[in-house]
Amino acid sequence: MIFCFLSRTVQLASTSSLPGRRLCSARANKPVLTLFTKKPCPLCDEAKEVLEPYKRRFILQEVDITLPENSAWYNKYKYDIPVFHLNGKFLMKHQVDIQKFEDQLTKLEMHNDGKH
C-alpha cells in the first residue's frame, strides 16, 4: 500500500478547485482536509499536532488567508482560525473536535471504499 501525505500551503482563490489535487495518483481516494491558517498561528500548530495520528488517512492542504488572492477567506475567517474544511465542506473551527473529525473521516472512507 502506498501512502502520500501532503502538507503544504496553497494559494486558493476559490472553492471550485484545490490546486495540487493530482500530485499523487495513489491518494486519489483520500479525503482532503483544508486548514485555513496564517503565520503565526499557535492554535493551528496545536491542531495539526492533534491530527498527527490520522495523517495517513487524509491529505492536508493549508491555505494562508493573509495572501492577497485569499482575501475572501481572510474576510470570512480572520477571527476564527484554525478553520477546517473536509472535502470542501466546513467541518470545524477554533480547535479540533476529534470525535466529529473521526466520524466524518470514517464516513468518507466508507463511501470511497464502496466505490471500488
UniProtKB/TrEMBL annotation:
Superkingdom of this protein's organism: Eukaryota
Question: What Pfam families does this protein's entry cite?
Answer: Glrx-like
Under InterPro entries, the record lists: Glutaredoxin-like, Glutaredoxin-like_YDR286C, Thioredoxin-like_sf
Q: Which UniProt keywords apply?
A: Electron transport, Transport
- Entry's family note: Belongs to the glutaredoxin family.
- Write down what this protein is called: Glutaredoxin-like protein
